[in-house]
Amino acid sequence: MALTGINAYRKGNLKQDIATADPHRLTLMLMQGALDRLAFAKGAMERKDFVAKSEFLSRVTAILMNLRDTLDLDVGGEVAENLFALYDYMIEKVNDGHVKNDLKMLDEVISLLTPIRDAWVQIPEAAKQEAYEAQRQKRQAV
Q: Is residue 8, in this structure, part of any structural domain at all?
């Protein structure tokens, strides 16, 4: 019973974090969420808890699709195009790992996503503010 209260508290905190997060923080939360769910899915796979594995990998796929689909290919150019292709590849590997119950495929996705998340964390505040301002100006021009 105590876990129900703890989980409700966590969900409330997550909703508050999302409501107040800037786009950079939201992207970071998505990346970390995907990595966490990959780890949970691996544990479920090892325990042969296929329902939980399916739920976690479904969420991972949804997160990766969101990350891929929110890339601005016009502004991001070659970097955004490469990330788009990489997210596509990760989605394919998650799906293959799910179907084949292959931990190595999930490990590969983790090894691809972790450096992206780590680099995202290292973006300087000035660069984030510059990107927000450019995005704001782009919206006003439309």
A: no
